[in-house]
Amino acid sequence: MSQVQTVKSTEAAAAPRASDAFAMKLTSSELATTMSHFHRAEIGRMAGWRDRLDRTSNWAITVVAAMLSVSLSTPSAHHGVLLFAMLLITLLLWIEARRYRFFDVYRARVRQFERYYFAQIFSPQPDYASNWLAIVGEGLRSPRFLISQRAALVRRLRRNYIFMYTILMLAWVLKITTPSLQREGSPIGFGASFLDAMRVASLGPVSGIVVACIVGFCYAALVAAAFLVSSEEGELSHGTVHV
């Protein structure tokens, strides 16, 4: 009986678990060292995701260039090659938007350090967002995306991919309306008529008018997403330097 009581008293006297808070505050030199190392680490993460973004854009540019070369180099090439290129860069746009959401998390942390820490050292302002470090800590404890997939899609489309879509659209229109770029049996002349262009634009059992309507609807949606969505504000607005 006494042995059981001894065990219970020993368990009750065990030291409490450490809390999430620091046992003691860091000195100014320790805090500066921690801040500089953490800032350097976030710069590295941001640069890594930035490189992945650029790599996806380079893939998309390579796809566009290759498909243009294949489609416009010979009359025997089918115009569907350009439609396939549109699908490929749509897939790459989706992948890049997902990567951009990760990049945006680390970009925001880097900007917090630059805005609230380093800028305060170089040009102090009284009580300027004094709780920013706690916000960074909560972001580390519970990481969350700062923008939605839709917002990331619109942002990457507006900055890069709308130009690639435009080039492919112009090449597709050129392909179906220029006799010298079409297969044998196409009408000969300076330019094909509307009906001839719709005949050339057919895709298997799908008529050319249906194909043209689908392409036109998709491009109208792209233009609306790129230019009719509310403009970005703050650091990401046009003309403002941002990382």
Automatic annotation (TrEMBL):
Protein name, UniProt field: DUF2270 domain-containing protein
Source organism (scientific name): Mesorhizobium waimense
Keywords carried by this UniProt record: Membrane, Transmembrane, Transmembrane helix
Keyword Transmembrane helix carried by entry: yes
TM region(s), chain numbering: 56-74, 80-97, 162-182, 202-229
Domain of life from the UniProt record: Bacteria
